[in-house]
Specification:
seven-stranded mixed sheet, single chain, 12 helices, 28% helix, alpha/beta
Amino acid sequence: MSDNPSFVLEGILDATFQQMPVPEIDANEVLVEVKKTGICGTDVRSCARITTHLFQVHFLVHGHVGDFIVEKPMVLGHESAGVVAKVGPSVTNVKVGDRVAIEPATTCRKCEACKEGRYQICPDIVCAATPPTDGTLSRYYRLPSDLAYPLPPNLNLEEGAMMEPLSVAVHAVSKLGALRSNQSVAVFGCGPVGLLCMAVAKALGASRVVAVDIVPSRLEFAKAYAATDVFLPPPMEKDESRVAFSIRNAQAMKEKLRIADRGPQAIDLVLDASGAEVSIQTGIRITKSGGTFVQVGMGNPNVNIDMFVVIGKELVIKGSFRYGPGDYPLAIALAASGKVDVKPLVSHRFPFTQAREAFETTRNGKSPDGKGVIKVMISGPDVDLNEM
């Protein structure tokens, strides 16, 4: 257990394969041999700007996400699953050989947020592949044992890696959106997180799931996957401001899909998984009076919002950050029961030795053969692409 090849970000658009030390574990920790890792947009940004929960793409291209700046070499990756290779002497919930999904963030467990059950906003949270902390694109990854979730027999390791973005969707839809059966939902952005938000809403009994995107092929996929309705926004007119466009766009959406401000045709919950300013502006305008708007995607941090609409409709607006207590278990339960199928989202697969090509494909949004990217999956070192 001395060989630990890793995919390391050195600088903007500069990532290399390096041997890293095998992590030493504490009494309550486990060492996981990583088998599958999905690429999140933030992975690529660290190394171009791509939104909709694209942290790792952002690190690759820009060297930072918000205030998190890559100042020294850092292992990328945080959407992972693998097999437990070693356990600390106090670990009782998993054993060597167990297949597990990795929740890639640790917290202090002592602060007010942690004690309130909102550990995702712990001021001392340490997240994988968020500077300066190394991520999971290595042979081995160390974590507290309670953040290694055993996978049921009917879920493979690739599906296990998808539990991270699915937990993001569970947190946004179930916990923050508080979706109830027979309510209506609209989701802006048909990337992986947006699609999973739709799937979670459908699984929880939403009567209507509206998908919004500017790419027709993504809308086609959304309709086949989880959406009941789709909407393709009209193009912006010459010299039209974003605010003017959002007003026109919201009106067009209401007319085409017969969306009302109140009653059974109203949209109870709107989630933006795009981060685009016009999507946020449009989403607030189509949310029903007294409804809820949840911001999931990251884009321009400075967005113009019509506060008269927010106040006049008494909207509840929430920001969604990662996931919290209970989100991973619910994500696994939804997938294991067949209520959410994550397999169709994996569009491209690469061996570990082609991690650079995997990131480049994600950054370009399509592979050289023209196939559009939804989720790119990288196998661990010496792991066969077909090993699930």
